[in-house]
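Step 1: inspect the first sequence and its tokens.
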Amino acid sequence: MKRFVMSLAAVAIVMAPGVQAQRRAFDLTTPRPIPAADKVWIEELTWMEVRDAMTAGKTTALIVAGSTEQNGPYVPTGKHIFVLRATAEAIARKLGTALIAPAIPFEPGNFSTTPGTIQVRDTTYDALVEDQAESLKANGFKHVILIGDSGGNQRGLERVAQKLSTTWAGTGTTIHYIKEYYDSWTAADGAWDSLGVPKTKDEGIHDDYSVNSIIATVDPEKIRFKQRQETGKASINGQTLLPLETTVANGKKLVEIRANITVEAIKKALATK
């Protein structure tokens, strides 16, 4: 008990307003002791690396949303999160002025009974997106960009962007919902013929070649490539995933298509006053 009381006393001292402010002032100006890592995901950076990246001009933050849901027998429930690991990184690097906030792994829904599907209420979702945006604004980011990889993300992201656009008016920080990112799925699917991957049949399992090839650029085992190859299931909707090198190369091209469309839309949004 004595140790516990002393711990509380120590916490009280640390959290005293004057001490806390002094500590923050010291921390915020402490030089980074090692070279910065070449990363764009905020959770992969130290706070000093985030600070210095912002000072160097990376004052745009991407809020990226996916889902955790049923996606057929081969692709994990976090499909959209793994897609975002490829597309969001490409977008941030093409912009050159952006960092990416930790991905939101949920979308609103009515609490599906399908094993592995995790959903939240509209109010919970909106509050989560809004609080993440407010945190980024408090950090000092000047522009917050909202993109969603799943269809269920779109209305909530748009609602939050509309709300905060009004709330933040005149503060020097802007927020933008980029619908074009989700719409770029259509452009990716439309590129199959040019990649030599003609569309054949739809197996009706909430999965397709674009999804498989993009995720394969992150990690082929996320699409269970080895197990599928061993059991003769290395295809989707009749489109082969063999050889893997070709699927990965095609996935990179589809990432490029989606990233280019989104970057153009972001630049247009930021240029509009």
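Step 2: inspect the second sequence and its tokens, then contrast the two.
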Amino acid sequence: MLILGLTGGIATGKSSASEYFRSRHIPIVDADQLARLVVEPGKPAYHQILKHFGHLNILENNSPSINRKRLGEVIFNNEQMRRQLNRCTHGYIRREALKQIIHYFYQCQPLIVWDVPLLFEVGLDRFVKQTLVVSCDENTQLARLKQRDQIEDDQQALQRINSQMKLSEKCRRARYVIDNNGSKDVLHKQLNDFLVTFKPSQVNTFAWFVILFIPITITYGFLRIWDAVDRVKYR
């Protein structure tokens, strides 16, 4: 089994790349999806967030659910709050990601894509075999972000872009880079060419399955126990 870390800058097309991999029946571990999952009402991360940010009116109207847009606005320009939110959620997101990876391991999947917007920022690139960045030039990124999020002010859009690690630095760190300045068809062609030269060996997958079966089984059991303890703790 080979884990490919997929990342990119905001509005560079990472999600489009992830959708293409999914259309090719390649398992996706989606960090954004897991981030929404772990903050659902009743989850441990949900209680942690309310403990630290509940006084800031971050819940939906007439609902116990967290308004993620409102929470994002609260922490956007506050580094201390952003770090606190990360402490509330990142551990649970990683735990859920590991559970999904183990699930795909037992299915003997030769390739898994771990889709993480902040792959390098939070150091998760240490846990993947290869990394792929979806990139584009600055003008294209700015135009796409303004159109996607209906932002009229260039400065506001640039502020969001600059809040992340520079795209050039991500490209420098990555093993592979996809240039997404063109259309979706062009992107899909590049990703298809990438997969043709990047298909891991089924033999190697089986060998790793035999070697890692026992330690991964123990790890999965530990995660299940950890979940049970959290459910009791926050009941």
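Step 3: confirm your contrast with the notes below.
The CA atoms of residues 24 and 192 lie 9 Å apart. The chain has a mean pLDDT of 87.
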